[in-house]
């Protein structure tokens, strides 16, 4: 194994972003989403729907505010939620996007960084 491989983030989870149909104005933000885009994960500990809720957001830039895309899927999010609560450096990146009628299909990789 070379040094670049050792420092690469570990892919913890590959999944779809849940709830994109419930995010307002996502259609206007979709053109700004790109493959490989870094994403931020935020633990939503007070969710009344999912004990392990984790929000998926774009990173804010000087010219573009953060956009809330949806959630990690229920039933696949507990490990990530626990790692976020433990202070681990967990991020994500966009690996696929497409429209399925009115549904924005976003596939991401969740990453454990050094």
UniProtKB/TrEMBL annotation:
Upper classification of the organism: Bacteria, Pseudomonadati, Bacteroidota, Cytophagia, Cytophagales
Domain of life where this protein originates: Bacteria
Alphabetically ordered keywords of this record: Hydrolase, Metal-binding
Any one GO molecular-function label of the UniProt entry: zinc ion binding
UniProt organism field: Hymenobacter jejuensis
Record flagged with keyword Manganese: no
Name of the molecule in the record: HIRAN domain-containing protein
Residues in HIRAN domain copies: 13-112
One Pfam family it belongs to: HIRAN
InterPro entries recorded: HIRAN
């Amino acid at each position: 194994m070379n040094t670049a491989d050792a420092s690469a983030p570990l892919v913890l989870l590959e999944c779809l972003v849940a709830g994109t149909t419930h995010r307002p104005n996502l259609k206007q933000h979709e053109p700004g989403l790109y493959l490989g885009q870094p994403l931020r994960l935020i633990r939503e500990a007070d969710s009344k729907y999912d004990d392990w809720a984790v929000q998926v957001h774009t990173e804010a830039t000087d010219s573009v505010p953060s956009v809330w895309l949806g959630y990690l899927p229920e039933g696949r999010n507990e490990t990530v939620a626990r790692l976020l609560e433990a202070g681990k450096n967990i991020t994500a990146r966009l690996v696929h996007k497409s429209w399925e009628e009115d549904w924005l299909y976003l596939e991401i990789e969740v990453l454990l960084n050094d």
